[in-house]
Amino acid sequence: MVLDKSYSISEIDNRIYGSFIEHLGRAVYGGIYEPDHPEADDQGFRKDVIDLVKELNVPIVRYPGGNMVSAYNWEDGVGPKSQRPKRLELAWRTIETNQIGTNEFMDWAKKVNTDVMMAVNLGTRGIDAARNLIEYTNHSGGTYWSDLRKEHGYEDPHNIKTWCLGNEMDGPWQVGQKTAYEYGRIAKETGKAMKLVDPSIELVACGSSNTGMPTFPEYEATTLDIAYEEIDFISLHQYYGNRSDDTANYLAKTMDMDHFIKTVTSTCDYIKAKHRSKKTINLSFDEWNVWYHSNDADKQIDAWQIAPPQLEDVYNFEDALLVGSMLITFLNHADRVKMACMAQLVNVIAPIMTENNGRSWKQTIYYPYMYTSLYGRGTALKPILSSPKYDSKDFTDVNYIDCAAVYQKEAEEVVLFLVNKNLQESISVTTDVRSFEGYQVLEHVVLENEDLKATNKPGSEKVTPHKGGSSKINDGVLETRLTKASWNMIRLRNVNA
Ligand code: AHR
């Protein structure tokens, strides 16, 4: 591999380390909020969960859905809690108590030092509800909705900057599913009205729900064609699973993600050319993760419960490897992927888990997410990598090694993130780092485990990283040994600085 200061991809937008909290399962109730829990603060938020979220340094959290937003009345979640209605929540077929809504969530976001990416309902509702919501959250005062916010105890506007125009509107599971034309029109008109209320906002339009959708990538092309001038980002969603227990093929799935990103980027640029526009639309990969472990259990859950344990995937070691590779993929597309949200954050397909009235704990996937979020900030460099390759069921020429590199100019640090997908053998990597004179290895963190299916549980974390990786620099060459099936972070620093 060759790594050079001048081979830069782009500055990294820290919002690629975003996450997502939906009113789904125990994400909100029993996750971030549990007023009877011994760790609850004065608003009922769990302090143990706040600490774990802060450790991840999450820059932005998408809210309140997801599928849930497509039949959500935001007005139900504001004002005196005793007067808030209980509703049938149609996406996940539960009861929504509305004890947490927009204002409380904004308070929680402050507590964990994050911004909010707020989604509006374009399923059952549209322009009117969206323009009222943004007047409520972002207008300073002197009008009906902004004064109502003040009456509700929030004198200052929340000034939410990032907004999603609906969620997965191409999906037949979505309440109010829309054709690309129908969606493009409502996205354009809603976005226009919202920007009239607050021109400083950024808008994310829905793309396809995943690469397997029959309308991909025509849905993106039509939506962009109609709403190009109003929107700023197009969204991508993708979940992977190892359903046929074929780990080599599973770990190759980032090739699909790479193809997804390249296709959506090309689609954006095609419409840019068609419109003779100077504006570039960037990508918001605002739902990504592994999701499949809980599929069968979810079918057994009875409808119309309050906060049942839905989508509670327990992640194993190989899932952490794939999550590490997905983050590497974002870094290698840092020029166009400017936001991304690990879906989700607490209990629901999440790195953080809680027991009701009990402990909180870290899943395997917590670690690659945490390290990449903490150290993957700065300039993404393009590693020139020649890796041995393999073929799997669905993919050919899969690199055994995935790598991304980040240069932190001020701190004079270079951070490499590497995954070795070879399940049998370690691989030695030789990297030319001559442009980083005076740099030495600061630490080499490794996540490895003999058992690909090892999981963490409350009180027993079998999958945790250690700092004993093998890396050294001699004469401008970094010699690294990546153990079989491992995720690695190597930090280099200028010792002469
Ligand atoms: O994250 C879980 C669900 O996955 C979201 O509600 C939806 O947008 C996607 O299908």
Please give a handful of descriptors for the protein shown.
TIM Barrel, binds alpha-L-arabinofuranose, single chain, six-stranded antiparallel beta sheet, 25% strand, alpha/beta, 25 strands, 497 residues, eight-stranded parallel barrel, 25% helix, 2 domains, globular, Immunoglobulin-like, 11 helices
Second-tier CATH architecture of the largest domain: Alpha-Beta Barrel
Tally of separate helices: 11
CATH homologous superfamily annotation of the largest domain = Glycosidases
- Cα distance, first to last residue? 25 Å
What name is given to the CATH topology of the largest domain?
A: TIM Barrel
Largest sheet: 8 strands, parallel, barrel
As a whole number of angstroms, the C-alpha radius of gyration is 23 Å
Low-confidence stretches: none
Bound ions, cofactors and other small molecules, one mention each: alpha-L-arabinofuranose
What's the rounded overall pLDDT mean? 98
- Would you report the number of β strands? 25
* CATH class call of the largest domain: Alpha Beta
Describe this structure in words.
The protein has 497 residues and is α/β, with parallel strands linked by helices. Helix content is 25%, strand content 25%. The protein has helices at residues 47-56, 102-111, 127-138, 144-151, 180-197, 218-227, 247-251, 254-274, 295-299, 317-332, 366-375; strands at residues 8-11, 18-20, 60-63, 87-89, 94-96, 115-120, 162-165, 202-205, 233-240, 282-290, 337-342, 352-354, 360-362, 379-381, 389-390, 398-399, 401-408, 413-420, 427-432, 439-447, 456-457, 460-461, 470-474, 477-482, 486-494. The strands form 7 sheets. Strands 2-3-6-7-8-9-10-11 form an 8-stranded parallel barrel, surrounded by 6 helices. A 6-stranded antiparallel sheet has the order 1-14-17-18-25-20, covered by helices on one side. Helix 3 packs parallel to helix 5. It is globular, with a radius of gyration of 23 Å. The two termini are 25 Å apart. The mean pLDDT is 98. Alpha-L-arabinofuranose binds next to loops.
